[in-house]
Amino acid sequence: MNSITEYITFNTKSRFELINITIDVEKILNRSGIKEGLCLINSMHISSSIFINDDEEGLHHDFHEWLEKLAPHEPIKKYRHNDTGEENADAHLKRQIMGREVVVAVTKSKLDFGPWEQIFYGEFDGNRKKRVLVKIIGE
Amino acid sequence: MNSITEYITFNTKSRFELINITIDVEKILNRSGIKEGLCLINSMHISSSIFINDDEEGLHHDFHEWLEKLAPHEPIKKYRHNDTGEENADAHLKRQIMGREVVVAVTKSKLDFGPWEQIFYGEFDGNRKKRVLVKIIGE
Amino acid sequence: MNSITEYITFNTKSRFELINITIDVEKILNRSGIKEGLCLINSMHISSSIFINDDEEGLHHDFHEWLEKLAPHEPIKKYRHNDTGEENADAHLKRQIMGREVVVAVTKSKLDFGPWEQIFYGEFDGNRKKRVLVKIIGE
Asked: What ipTM was reported for this prediction?
């Protein structure tokens, strides 16, 4: 069994941001030389997500509006987590809807994707340096 | 390390449909000869889900009603994604709640399940040919 | 390839309960001797979750309140699943938001976590003996 572990880092610029990291993951896969296996991609933060969906601007607007409705940022005082001095309780909830991680099949040295699958980092509490873990195991 | 990769295909007949694919996955596992490992099952589409829950008709009705409330199909014009000519923005949202994939342990040549776990394909934007990826790695 | 499979069992005391099982998973990893691999942790029940988030009491209160709003327990008769004699339809829905499983990277013999990641069992229909599966594959 072979494995590779790498970390993608970036600074997010706003509270809500969806960043397409598919190419970054593909580069790591190419470096690994792994032909058949499983690729885990997860956020290392608890107020952001990794998820797979469409790279379409209108949809990303819809995600923002929808998540804000299901887990509103305001009023900040409605959340007990924010009594600790934080104001990101909503981001911890949003991340549960969108998910922490994805696991993608590696087949014939490629991410084994349907035609529209793209990997996104979803930021819900931005303005800091963030890290994504990519680990591939296989042969 | 050993691996098997197969694709389950079917046509969905209505916009909302939950299809039990547990037996299909078990057949692939039997063909693989893998005794200990991990089995990934994911939708290859971005408006449908793979998830594990109960095979109970009343519950499936509840899922339908609940998802429609959290991410309503109508009014279609409320979603910016639908400005592209699509009318499935709600399906992209529903899929995030229900999830893209499951990873199941393979132990002693079986899917290592609790008594009620069953694997479902959840269709939220139907009437087309759909594909599910099953990849098992192990020994 | 090496693997270990273990089951964590416990009794939950109330309908809603979040139990930090990170140390239990770390002990299993230490017993396995696996240095590089993937660790699957899943609930074996269909009305509870495994998820990764913050071990902060205020946030756990917020999760409870939020899930109760998105998938209310009452009125019990509003769910068709409860016509079967159950009264836990809401728990099956809550589990979909919070997720069935997590997959964690194992790097240099450790769970490869960001600073705040902790693994929780989320109970939404308690008062019974419950089981969590931990499977690690790697080398």
From this structure: 0.97
